[in-house]
């Protein structure tokens, strides 16, 4: 792949015949690596998509009702496919090899830096939240004065090594640190496959419990349409849009995965396969969770598995669900971290050689990022509020506003009427969902403060 001069100036590969000169932001540094396989790329792409957002989808479907909720999940997948297709087509036209290079080709250095900043903010916030959830699952958490024990604490009691700080430190050193040390995203294909399998385990258990309880008559079929009792309930429907729009965000890993493929022309099929699989997982999770818990479905459905399910071996199944999901997030972590490190390095060192070729820079950036994420998860629990805002802006920008802006800019004159129509739709949905999410967050924070002050 040829790199245009405007993109080349940001990334210079070392001048050695033993190393490939193919990519500006990410190059293979292992001689003898022949390229990633189709299946490995599908696992990595699917793992990028299915993160913590899967646990919020059942609550979104509860707000919308079963039929509108499931339709919105399908539409979200279709919209995501359109945005990724535009990214890939405009990338080929601009002869770049990275998302930041594409945006830089359309909007220059400031546009490139803004995209990289959005990816850094989005991924950093996401990884802090992942570590918070991992800590909650293993060590437990307190909410409104109620203590929810974690699985490790339940199994072994309160020890110094079952405390939140200790468990997260052990997880960081023994699990996360080795996984984030890989310089190729394809090296994570096996852990990504396991991550995908664990997501399927969660769906299978939820489906099995829901079907069992439906057959014995202890639960009823869920609402098909939203429950609108007042004006507040109507406006609350719009707060589900950010969850549905951002459920498929994976755009920051499109190029790293494509750049390592044996046959890059397979990328379109890889994206379609991954989106089809993930949308199926999302639909099954949302349907069976809402069927199982009905109007008692919590904002994080994982919290519903902290109580008696009303079936034999309930405690055992609760533990399997929580442990499998905690391990799933540990395995998603390095995939999200990969693009975080790549974009932060591009933001800080835009004219340096690719980070994979510079061991000192690679490990320094890696250690600094991991340290910040670890401290954030341990000492700044209120960071949830901050990242509700950044997630509603940075994630939506990366997934929809930037692809739409590149298509509307149309530097190389290849945009079709359909591209421009879809771009305007994406911008409308992105802006409206961001506004709804931020307004809802501000309202909830103000309401909480009023209740605390009364």
From TrEMBL:
The chain crosses the membrane at residues 41-61, 67-88, 114-133, 161-180, 192-212, 232-250, 270-293, 323-342, 362-380, 386-409, 421-446. GO terms for molecular function: L-amino acid transmembrane transporter activity. GO terms for cellular component: organelle membrane. It is a multi-pass membrane protein. Residues 1-26 are annotated as: Disordered. The keyword Transmembrane helix applies. Coiled coil: none annotated. Residues 36-437 form the Amino acid transporter transmembrane domain. Keywords: Amino-acid transport, Membrane, Transmembrane, Transmembrane helix, Transport. It is found in: Membrane. Its main location: membrane. This is Amino acid transporter AVT6A-like isoform X1. It comes from Prunus avium. The lineage of its organism: Eukaryota, Viridiplantae, Streptophyta, Embryophyta, Tracheophyta. The gene is LOC110768550.
